[in-house]
Amino acid sequence: MRFRNILLLVLFPFLLSCEESLTIDIPAGQEQLVVEGHIEQDAPPVVVLTRSMPVFAGSSPADIEASFVHGAQVEVSSGGRSYTLKEVPAAAFWPELRRVVSEQYAIPENQLTSGSSFIFYVYTSDELRGETGKSYQLRISHEGRVLTSTTTIPHLNPLQELFLQPHPDPSQDSLFTLFYRYRDPDTLGNSVRYFTKRNSEPFYPGYFTSVFNDELINGVQNLSFPLDRGEPRGREVDLDTYSYFGKGDTILVRWAAIDLAHYRFWYTLENERNNNGSPIGSPNTTRSNINGGLGVWGGYGVTYHQIVVK
Known about the structure:
Blueprint: H1 2-16, E1 33-40, E2 46-51, H2 61-67, E3 73-78, E4 81-89, H3 95-105, E5 121-124, E6 135-142, E7 145-152, E8 161-166, E9 175-182, E10 191-198, E11 204-205, E12 211-213, E13 223-226, E14 244-246, E15 250-258, H4 260-275, E16 294-308
Parallel strand pairs: 1-16
Antiparallel strand pairs: 1-2, 2-5, 3-4, 3-6, 4-5, 6-7, 8-9, 9-13, 9-14, 10-11, 10-12, 10-15, 15-16
């Protein structure tokens, strides 16, 4: 995408003086395997494995289903023991797996049932449960390609409290900003990813940024910051109401401690999304922690916090 923007700027003076149609063939690039996998405490591992797709490829249900990689050998190891993950379609999810997938991938639970036509596959194990403080090694083998990664589930790092402040415009007295109060541990490198759930909605990550790091605030004991309401990716944002909650809303915050490699993936990916199409955006490379492929294998140390807008 960034190459395309530079190319248009170079060609712009010529386009003004020329009416001839110009077609540029952009190579699709080599297909790669893409991982989005997570493991959190007291929950099974979940790995989604797909193929990379050209930027201008279709997005029909058939295209999406064709992107899933089936029949891979997926293993997670920890503490000297290895677990083989089996492939499970959405229609066969059991209640615990349905909850975990819904929370981690912002998918409504009712789409992950046997009566739904929603297309989604994961690799998982009903024998393994994540534990805080432990490391987990991922190994994927498929058609001669091997992908590896390691992640850690950090120790829990909960919020002190949630609180609300009214909209600064008195005419918008039904809207409130959510704030959190937080005490940062006196160890450098603490990182967090957050999601918010409003009433019966799924958990959505922060739209423009969902991750924080203590590089500039290490060890600060009494921090208060606003927390934007999470939004589904792809929905057009209403800037008049973006980030606010309304009277009567029940808000649940999923506050997840993550390690540095996990943080750097989401930080660079979200920067890339936010700069996409901007002529003044800084060059950015998404920092995957997958050796031999793309994507992320990340641990979550999750705590939940609730507040009601009265």
